[in-house]
């Protein structure tokens, strides 16, 4: 009966809220649980694992179902309902325990009202089911979790050892070929002793690209880890990503943008359909892109780049030591007190403070356009002069911002709601003049992190955990909870012009 004590705090907290609720809610709080309601609740608790939730958090369904009617059963059933409902709506783990800079909005629900309505309608299981995220991706991950749990498949393991590449042979090459055949990437497993040939190399490159690994056709350490990931690893990965979905609001916006950091992918959504998809570059591990949501307010075509003070220091030094190089790259020096451009030769380095800005042009760090959604992180979406990096499978090399491929097409999508035609957008780009467009129809932008995603057919793909965040979340789901951090200081003002690139 240890779970009774574990749920005692939940009972007390919700009981206190119930005494302050409306009369109807108070009445529903004290209505004895019927046998049919307890049976429904027991069924819902027995399916908690299908949401990636830990069954140990709740009463044993069979024990609950076997309890005799009375106040004790009512108390336990009520507490169990609220515990499961809260986990389905808000998640089992507070994301701030893992990401102190977490600033994305959370789901909202009035659980007291939900409870009262569930009791009044006799819809215990139905109400709980409706509290889980309705997103198609969540449901796809849930189906995959059920499939992997009910019908597990043991992987053909590739033994550890040195890197394998074309021309190698031996038992490890045989195992690699068998594993890729098991995954459906090779039509035939081949013969024992066959050399690592071009066909095997191509299959390995397809596997690496699918998992967002460097697609070099060489079996290295990171690829080996993903190849040997068994059912237990994938089940934990699904649990982690189901939890991430429970951290998000139910409504992401009829027209919104999603960036999945781990998948290097930006999607433009409208009424439940992906209308555009773009490759993205994200922050490096030491300048990782944070998870948050804000509304896009401004599109700046042919922008200036206002360097943040932390990134401007190298350019300030260059202005002092080699101003010709700075000017050649389109940089200018601005006096922070007056806002005026200053000739580097006339700068008063001892007594004045300066900021470096970069004029529009082919070398501009923002490229041809930036999409602004003011936030405490100074993170935005923008074009980049480093187009060649989009050829890489792994694209985690920015200073934190999200660089997007084909940004003009994204600008056409964004400005369509403002009444702009594609021709007008392209004309604005071709003019080479800076154009700052404030959006009448703001667009929610969600910067997310998912390592298990579903494609348009509902099939789940596993991508490389580039920031290595899964392990900490899985430990937290298993009960190893880090403490909540102190609230971060709120900046006095958000600089709409500063972007970290």
State the main characteristics:
single chain; 501 residues; alpha+beta; L,D-transpeptidase catalytic domain-like; 4 domains; 8-stranded mixed β-barrel; 4-stranded antiparallel beta sheet
Can you describe what's shown?
The termini are far apart. This protein has 4 domains: 131 residues, no CATH class; 59 residues, no CATH class; 193 residues, L,D-transpeptidase catalytic domain-like, CATH 2.40.440; 55 residues, no CATH class. The model has no long low-confidence stretch (mean pLDDT 89). The strands form 3 sheets. The chain has an 8-stranded mixed beta barrel. Strands 5-8-6-7 form a 4-stranded antiparallel β-sheet. A two-stranded antiparallel sheet has the order 14-15. It is globular. It is 38% helix and 16% strand. Strand 1 and strand 2 form a beta hairpin. The longest helix is centred in the N-terminal third of the chain and has 20 residues. With 501 residues, it is an alpha+beta fold.
Q: Which strands sit side by side, in order, in the main sheet? A: 1-2-3-12-10-9-4-13
Instruction: Determine the CATH topology of the largest domain.
Output: L,D-transpeptidase catalytic domain-like
Q: Termini, distance in Å? A: 55 Å
Instruction: Determine the structural class based on helices, strands and strand pairing.
Output: alpha+beta
The share of residues in helices is 25-40%
Overall number of strands = 15
Silhouette: globular
CATH superfamily annotation of the largest domain: L,D-transpeptidase catalytic domain-like
Instruction: Return the average pLDDT rounded to an integer.
Output: 89
Number of domains: 4
């Amino acid at each position: 009966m240890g779970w009774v004590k574990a749920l005692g705090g939940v009972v007390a907290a919700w009981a206190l809220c119930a005494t302050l609720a409306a009369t109807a809610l108070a009445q529903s709080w004290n209505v004895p649980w019927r046998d049919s309601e307890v049976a429904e609740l027991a069924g819902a608790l027995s399916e908690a694992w299908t949401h990636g939730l830990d069954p140990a958090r709740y009463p044993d369904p069979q024990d609950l179902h076997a309890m005799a009617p009375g106040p004790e059963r009512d108390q336990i059933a009520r507490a169990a309902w609220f515990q499961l409902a809260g986990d389905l709506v808000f998640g089992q783990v507070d994301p701030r325990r893992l990401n102190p800079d977490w600033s994305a909005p959370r789901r909202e629900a009035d659980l007291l009202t939900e409870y009262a309505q569930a009791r009044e309608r006799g819809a215990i299981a139905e109400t709980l089911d409706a509290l889980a995220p309705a997103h198609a991706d969540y449901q796809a991950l849930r189906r995959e979790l059920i499939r992997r749990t009910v019908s597990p498949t043991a992987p053909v393991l590739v033994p550890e050892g040195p890197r394998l590449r074309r021309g190698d042979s031996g038992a490890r090459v045989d195992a690699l070929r068998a594993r890729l055949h098991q995954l459906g990437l090779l039509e035939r497993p081949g013969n024992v002793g066959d050399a690592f040939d071009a066909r095997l190399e191509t299959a390995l490159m397809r596997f690496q690209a699918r998992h967002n690994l460097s697609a070099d056709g060489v079996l290295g350490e990171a690829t080996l880890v993903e190849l040997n990931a068994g059912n237990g690893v994938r089940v934990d990965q699904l649990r982690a990503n189901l939890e991430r979905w429970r951290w998000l609001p139910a409504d992401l916006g009829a027209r919104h943008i999603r960036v999945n950091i781990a998948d290097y992918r930006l999607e433009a959504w409208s009424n439940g359909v992906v209308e555009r998809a773009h490759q993205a570059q994200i922050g490096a591990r030491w300048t990782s892109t944070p998870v948050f949501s804000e509304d896009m307010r401004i599109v700046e075509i042919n922008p200036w780049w206002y360097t943040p003070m932390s990134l401007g220091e190298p350019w300030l030094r260059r202005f002092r030591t080699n101003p010709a190089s700075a000017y050649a790259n389109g940089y200018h020096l601005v006096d922070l007190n007056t806002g005026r451009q200053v000739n580097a030769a006339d700068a008063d380095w001892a007594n004045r403070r300066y900021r470096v800005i970069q004029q529009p042009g082919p070398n501009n760090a923002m490229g041809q356009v930036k999409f602004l959604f003011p936030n405490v992180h100074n993170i935005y979406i923008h074009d980049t002069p480093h187009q060649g990096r989009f050829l890489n499978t792994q694209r985690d090399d920015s200073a934190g911002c999200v660089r997007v491929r084909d940004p003009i097409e994204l600008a056409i999508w964004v400005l369509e709601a403002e009444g702009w035609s594609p021709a007008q957008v392209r004309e604005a780009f071709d003019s080479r003049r800076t154009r700052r467009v404030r959006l009448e129809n703001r667009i929610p932008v969600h910067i997310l992190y998912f390592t298990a995603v579903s494609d348009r057919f509902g099939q789940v793909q596993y991508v490389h955990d580039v920031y290595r965040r899964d392990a900490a979340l899985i430990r937290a789901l298993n009960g190893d909870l880090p403490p909540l951090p102190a609230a971060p200081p709120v900046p006095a003002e958000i600089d709409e012009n500063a972007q970290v690139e």
